[in-house]
Every structure is written in C-alpha cells, then in structure tokens.
Amino acid sequence: MFRFPRIEEPGFIAIAVLGLCFATGLPASGAGQAETTGAAAPKAGEAKPGEPTDTKARKTFASAMDWEKHRDYGAALDDFRKANKQDGGHCGECLRRAYTLAVRVGAYKDAVEIAREFLPLSQSDEEKAIGHFLLARSLQVQGINDKKEKCIEESGEEFKAALELNPKLARAHFHLGESLARLHQDDAARTQFQAFLDQDRKNPNLHERAERYLEHIELARARMAPPFAVTTLDGQRISMDSLAGKVVLIDFWATWCGPCREALPHIRKIAKKFDGQPFVVLSISLDSDEGKWKEFVEKNEMTWLQYRDGGFNGRISNQFGVKAIPATFTIDADGVLEDQHVGDAEIEGKLKKLIARAAEAESRKEAQPAPGNAPDGAN
Predict the structure, then answer these.
(1) Positions marked catalytic
(2) Mean pLDDT in order along the chain per 10 residues (379 residues)
(3) DSSP of 362-377
(4) 184-187 long-range CB contacts below 8 Å, 24 or more apart?
C-alpha cells in the first residue's frame, strides 16, 4: 500500500519546527535552561528542567523513555502524554517528546492536541508564536492527509496568529501561502509566498519551491515531493525543484539490503533505457559506511546520480517517510509524487508515459515564441 511521505518538516515538521523550539528556548525544550540561568546542574535522580516533578509522573516518564529507546514509539507517545497529565499539565519535556513522536509516527491528530497543550506553557510573544506555528502546521498536515477543509481553514488562522506575535517568523508566510492556495485564495497565497521570499534567509531549499508556487499556484495544492538539496557522489548539487521538467525516480537502498541488490539490474536497465530523455534516477543509500558504499557503487557501475543518506534517520529518508527498503518513488515533471514502487514490474510502462508527457510539454514550451517576438508571418 502506498504511503505518501510526510508533509514537509525534514520529516519536515519533525526537524524544522522542533528546531524552532530549541532555537527560541520554548519551555518545552527544557534542555539548556540551567546553563542560561546559571543554576547548578541537577543532581543524580533529580528532575532536569522541564521534566516532571510528580513521583508518579516521573515513573511514567521513565517508562516512556524506555519505550522510545526500544523504538516502540506508540507506547512512548502514550506514556509521555500520560506523564504530562500526572504532572498537572506543565511538563514541557513530556510535551516536546510526545510531539516529536506524534510526527514521527504520522499521528497528526495527536500532534494537534499536543500543540494545543504547548500554548499555555508559552510566556513571551516569541514563544507563543512558536506554539501557534506548531499548532498551525499540525492542523495543516492533518487537513491535507484527512481531506478536512476545516483543519486547513483553522491552520490559516493559527499561522496568522503566529505572524502577529512574531512578524519575523518567515516560514509561517510560506505555509500560510499553502493553506490559502488549498482554500483557492490564490492572490492571497501569492502574497504570502512573496513575503516569504522577501524575508527568509534560512531556508534556501524552500525558495525554489516558493518561486514555483508563484508561477504555478496550482502546484501549491498538489501532493508535491518534499523540497531537498543534495551534493551527489560526483560533486553535483541538485535540488528537487531544480529537476523541474524531468521525471525523477528516487530509489532508497543499501549495500546490506538483499532485495536492493536483487533490484539493482532493473534500476540499471531503467537508467540506461531512458538515458538522454527528460528523466533522472537518483539512488539514495542508507549505508552508514561511506567506504563500502563508494566501493559498491564503483564495482557495480552505478553511473547515475548517487547520494548517501546514512540510515533510516537520514534527512532525505525522513522527508520521504522511508521505513523499509527498497523504496522507490516516481515524481512527475512538475514535482508531483505519482507513486511508490516496491518490486513493481510495471514501473517501466508508467515511467514511459510520464516521460512522454514531459517531453511533449517541453516541445510545446520550445515552440512558443519568445516574449516580445511575433510569430512568423504576423504583422
């Protein structure tokens, strides 16, 4: 069964949004408070800043930490939320960890509820803005995934609330633009994308995406591949949006994966068959050993684009929600996710149709007269 990758935030919301929490010192982070206040570090057995202080809550918190250590994220999520309730609803670290896990497992309804619990812990306008941003982004993802327009509408109001409290929160402009586009408020959406481009200096990968949305607002309503940029093994810097106009096949694999090695001849065949056409293959390795990866690529003449993400917790793997390999994604010439293939024998036929469509679109574009030039014979 196909699972679309998580909506932005590398899982996109998991890293970028939580990065905002840490950067602003939202009470939910807990970590680092002793350093900034000059307070002594807690003694062994004492609660760290942000952790629960209630005895029962501390036991539940420890249980959640153990569940998380053993990768039972659902149980860990439940226990972190339980610990927060046992602690009177003011355990910032419980909420931070619960929110992270909710996003990791794709439980966006839970993420929305947890984000609502963040807000009462916020003190400064900057912290409150982050709380509204977290809530807005979670609502947006839930609305998109569950096709709930009401959630999209509420996300827009929360993004606006975040910007009123902190006008410098440029990322909120980008996501507000997405919500407005999905509500078919296209002019307002374009205004937000332009505001993001004018203000943002921290998210270069999103600039290409925002520029594309400005030109083709309908793409802001599509299920787009996550925006990312990598430097491949041969030194090329590519981004998802720089490949516009080409069909992209992204193959997640590893040298230690038997089924991946078995699929390699098929990937090689596809790369060779469509060489010279508007088509790109990008293999993303989950190998942790760089030397073994490079040796394998060279030995097996993998001459198409290669990148090593380092594991299932790698940046690109998280963005695409990869939980098992081989995992192969097809992206059309507009950057829209078409499908995920695991051992799909019909992939070549699907690629052929997409590539033909991309070539036809490129031909039409080339046939159009340059701006300011009249067609031949026109006077």
Answers:
(1) 257, 260
(2) 39 41 38 37 59 94 95 94 94 93 90 93 90 95 94 97 96 97 97 97 89 96 92 94 94 95 93 94 96 96 96 90 90 87 70 91 73 55
(3) HHHHHHSPPTT-PPTT
(4) 186/217
Report pTM: 0.80
Residue 326: asked if its preceding bond is cis (omega within 30°), the reply is yes
Would you put residue 9 in left (φ > 0), alpha (ψ -120 to 50) or beta?
left
3-state helix, strand, coil in the chain (%, to 5): 55, 10, 35
Report the alpha-carbon distance of residue 114 to residue 98 in Å, rounded.
7
Q: Which fold has domain 16-35+47-167?
A: 1.25.40
DSSP string, 16-31: HHHHHHHHHT-GGG-T
Please state, in angstroms and rounded to a whole number, the distance separating the CA atoms of residues 169 and 192: 12
> Are 179 and 159 spatial neighbours (Cβ–Cβ below 8 Å)?
yes
Task: Give the C-alpha distances (Å, rounded to integers) separating 177 from 73, 114, 182, 198.
Answer: 32, 24, 9, 14
In the numeric block, the tokens 């060779």 are attached to 272
CA distance 21 to 15: 10
Q: Which fold has domain 229-366?
A: Glutaredoxin (3.40.30)
Per-domain boundaries in the chain: 16-35+47-167, 229-366
HSE on the CB side for 124, CA within 13 Å?
A: 9
Residue 84 is encoded by which pair of tokens?
């927060």
For the chain, the distance separating the N- and C-terminal CA atoms, rounded to the nearest angstrom, is 57
